[in-house]
Amino acid sequence: MIDSEIREKLSQYLKGAISLREFEDWFLPKTWNIHYLGDQSAQHLAYEIGLLLAEFSNRDWTENELRQQLQAHIDTHRS
User: Fold this and answer.
1) Residue 11 CB partners (closer than 8 Å, separation 6+)
2) Which of 13, 37, 78, 79 could in theory staple to 23 by disulfide, Cβ–Cβ 3.0 to 4.6 A?
3) SS3 label, residue 15
C-alpha cells in the first residue's frame, strides 16, 4: 500500500538514511495523483507531509525543525 511506502520512505529520511532532497524527489512524483487511488488514509498522509514540506520552504524553519514536525505528525497518526 502507498500509505506504508510513504511511511517507510519518511522513516528513512527521519533516520538520516536519505537526504531531504532524495525524499522529496521520491515523494512528489509518487503522490502527485494520489487522490486517484481512493485510499483516504494515504491521501491524508501525503497531503499533510506535502503541507509541511511547503511550509518548510516558505518559513524560516531549520531542517531539524522540519524533522521534528514530520516526526510529531507521524507519531500522532500511526496506523
Assistant:
1) 74
2) 13
3) coil
Q: Map grid coordinates 531539524 to a residue.
A: 64
Q: How many residues does the chain have?
A: 79
Tell me the residue type at 47. Answer: Y
Per-residue pLDDT tens, the chain, 79 aa: give them: 888 899 999 999 999 999 999 999 999 999 999 988 888 888 999 999 999 999 998 888 899 999 999 998 777 666 5
Q: What is the pTM of this model?
A: 0.86
Instruction: Using alpha carbons, list the distances in angstroms from residue 38 to 2, 10, 19.
Output: 11, 21, 29
Q: Answer whether 2's CB lies under 8 Å from 10's CB.
A: no
Q: Report d(CA 23, CA 37) in Å as an integer.
A: 21
